[in-house]
Structure prediction request, 330 residues.
Amino acid sequence: MSNLKNFPRVSLCHTPTPLENLARLSAYLGCKIWVKRDDCSGLAGGGNKTRKLEYLLADAIQKGADTVVTVGGLQSNHARQTAAAAAKMGLACELILQDVVGVPQQDYYHNGNLLLDQLCGAKIHRVTVEQSSELVVEQVVAELKNKGKMPYVIPLGGSNALGSLGYVNCADEIITQSHALNVAFDHIIVASGSAGTQAGLLAGLIAQHQDIPVLGICVSRSGLAQQSLVESLLKQTLSLLNIDQSWSHGKVKANGDYYGDGYGISTASMIHAVRLVAQLEGLLLDPVYTGKAMAGLFDLCQQGVFKPEHNILFLHTGGSQGLFAYREVF
Prediction:
């Protein structure tokens, strides 16, 4: 067992999130596709970061923080959920949001997650591509301390060992739901960026002695670079859970074939995947993470890497709010 009860946690997430069969998409791809609906986790539209924030904000409150500070891209799903979580817990929130090259211009700077950040009352610090967001975080933290505030810094994506516990918890849910459905999953597919979701999921499966392969579809870097990032965080998470780090050996798989020219930059395969899943299932993906992960799933099914008899679980990490920032792309 994963001993999650040993860690403080606030209640932010609608759990367990649904686990559904995608019958029409399965027929189209010739593989059996299921989806874990972490886009339904609540908190300003939901998404995977809500699970992580349950542990991170508990730690912040325990340490006497009155303000949370975090960093991300200008349309960060993590920033939106952090702003909402801070509002719910009565904390101030400062977001350091960095511009991204190659993104749409018509709505990116006003709509989508950025609009929701503002509605939740977060103070936004915009950072240019040339600036160091880490340096701006240091400056904001120093300014807050000078004003007598108690800031708590949440890392990019909420992806440290503590935040990853949210997906240790999710692994427990998946195992319970798979037993209830009498379905054995052969593969789990997840968009992999800041690494905490994939690392936490793997740690949870390891803790439960479940050997289900988890493939991370990269959204911002090569497969080798992503694999290294996830492996490091997986070992830290196992250590936090007092589980032998050697159990992580050979567990991390990442595929960097589908992120295109970079983080947040649209690809034709992403646009096709988002449109098709919406038209077949009424399910909204996002342009930065799940759209590219689903494009990868499409291709791997078409290549025959995944077989018709395989049960494939796609972890929907949310982010459909970002579609409104990418209107011109669609």
Observations:
- The longest strand covers residues 67-73.
- The longest helix spans residues 161-181.
- The chain has two domains: 4-48+160-329, 52-158.
- The mean pLDDT is 97.
